[in-house]
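Hi R.,

As promised, here are both runs. First protein below:
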Amino acid sequence: MPALGQECAPDSAVSGGTADAMAEETRAWEKLTGSGAALATDAASVALLRADQARVFYNRFPASERVREARKLEAICLINAVVEGKAGEEERMRRTVAAFRADGAIPGWDRAVVAGTYEFNEARTRIKSAEDMAREFEAVARGLMREFPDQPQGYTSLLTQAMMREPGEGRRMIQEVLDAPAPEEPRLRARRLATRLDLIGEPLMNHLDGFSAGGRPSVIYFWSAASPDSLALAARLAPLDAAKVNLIGICIDADPVAAARAATGLPGRLLYPAETKQGDQLDRIGADEAPALYLVDAAGNVTDVRGLTNLDEKLGSLGL
């Protein structure tokens, strides 16, 4: 099973130096990022070979602008190698990760990525139950928030955990992010998730123009032409009995005309808020991602905004 958090693959980078030195460096980088690891036959060996090649690269070209990326690649690949079974590399992995995350000359984003990949995989070794997972992953998220307060990874991870909790607990975790010195991106995400949770118990017609339950429960799915998973969810919902359940598909794309062309045959009543200049409605119902699923009771009150959690059970209760 691959490590959580980051692929064992390099980002793109640029080179510097004389023409000959650049050519030599480029060839070495291409060897590192190319098919050389295909000589290894299993995932653990591939990851370890990549890590070794990365170390050779930054030792051979210490002045290269790619040194940071090579060091990051070594750390991530060592994590993957250990996860895949190279237990003998564990001490090297720990030293490499510790040195990378403590190096203030490296941008915080990169250090947070390596730290998060390491910590989440360490946490996974301690998980024996769903309760363990919740506790361990929350602890990792909060640790990243403390270590890298100006980076989004820890806050985003805590928000992911929040949406797996009961609404009251999830709302408190979201507020924790809003009260922290988080970057703007996770703060915006937190505000939208708070809006979503605050819908529970509310009449949807107060927030979504044109909605009427008509005395039937409603399933509302959010889709985007760029999200195959959301289109697959729509197909899964298609067999719902329209005489018993209202099925509504809400497009979150900024260009609804293009979205409609790209995604034909979707089931239920389709709404395109952007098309009617009502895009603010997406904000009012916390709709910022696809796929997502809301459930509404026959009286028109929102009962669930985390419909993808335990989806099979919820669809089973609807006869799917």
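And here is the second one, sequence first, then its structure tokens:
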Amino acid sequence: MSLNMRRIAFALTVTVLSALVIGATGCAEKKTGMSLEITQPHDGAQVSTSAVLVVGKTVPDAVVSASVNDDLQVATFTQDGEFSFAVDLEEGPNFIEVITSDPYDNQASVGVSVIYNP
């Protein structure tokens, strides 16, 4: 075997072994495609209480935060992807935005409008 052929064989062996190690440890894997859904309250809901329960689902192990009218109110870590928390409302229309991110810096956000009429 010529010297060039040995170099190529060595490079291929290193490449294959590196791929096996990275695949086994998961060090180079990156998940993509965030999903986020608010199941409660529904967009356009009218409520008579000063707080509302926000319920939804995202990907497992995501960090979930919510803001109401641009004020951050809560941050929660979810292991199974399901979340629920109460947010305070101001009288009149309120925009609730839920933002989620995973350990790989993928993000998703969704919002609903809720009208508080005391």
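A quick note on the second one: The longest helix spans residues 3-25. Let me know what you think.

Best,
J.
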